[in-house]
Design goal:
Layout (H helix, E strand, L loop, with lengths): L1 H49 L4 H32 L13 E2 L10 E7 L6 H11 L5 E4 L1 H6 L1 H9 L3 E4 L13 H19 L5 E2 L10 H7 L3 E3 L3 E2 L8 H10 L5 E6 L6 H16 L3 E2 L2 H24 L1
Parallel strand pairs: 1-6, 2-3, 2-8, 2-9, 3-4, 5-6, 7-8
Helix pairs in contact: 1-2, 1-10, 2-10, 3-9, 8-9
The structure holds zinc ion.
Amino acid sequence: MENFDVLSKQGKTLATIIAASGSFLIAMLLPDIIWAKQQARTTISTKVTTNTLNPRANTQENTQISSIIPKNMNTTRQKLRELELETVDFTIPKRFEGKTVQKITLQNRQKVIALTFDDGPWNKTTEQILDILEKYNVKATFFVVGQHLNKHQEIGKKIVEADHVIANHTWNHPAQKSKINENRIKSEIERTAKLIYEITGKNTKLFRPPGGFLDNGLANYAKENKHTVVLWSTDSKDWYERSAQEITKKVLNKSRNGGIVLLHDGGGPRDHVVKALPNIIIGLKQQDYEFVTIPELLTIKDRELYQEELVKQQGKKQ
Ligand SMILES: [Zn+2]
């Protein structure tokens, strides 16, 4: 029995090393892939400029660009997915640590959007939402309320087992503008983080302040503790709109590349959200969106900024 334990420990260590090397390799390769793509794009655009006298050649080149780039983007996204799955916790790129994100603008030709669900886990509706997301193969980010997670621990586990991202939305959901007592702030965030870890084994560094209020001390505490404070760019208004059609229309009309959509799976009856969700997903897919989690969205933005920095550095050297 003892020997078996030792063997299994060794196996685990080996698996950890392999997993870590895998992550390392992907992390090392990813900038190269993007860099190579940047080179390809620069070459192509140079060609287009030199062909200004021949419009037909331009059309040909443009067709080539549009057929090459989305394919490359898909590869990049697959790499991102692998990267996320290889990491033990939901790693957020360093530059977003202690920052607030709301509007992410992307150059990426492949449009991406992040669906986020707040205030759960909730009886029935969270699981219905998980089923819909699975049906359409969409990954999302769930900002859970600690006391709700405590009540529905099994649903919390299901969120993570389905490869969605779980994030912190305080213990009691204090949605107030005025200052909150320091001890309470600490406990709202830490107690929830601890429970998320106990139930799912995930260390989240993503925090969303209830009501999006940034001045009551919660967001500052989160940032001081290296969390990324995540707001939203598209409010579905599902917390007061009761019609699934209205919610769908709001999301589809306000969608944008790099967008963060605010929806609710808990905190009250959310049947209208469950009803709206398939149409939201279908509508966004028709607009050519791919769905990403918040860590993926931040990683894509991080790589774009990295790419810009490389170009700037190259420019300085020349
Ligand atoms: Zn909330």
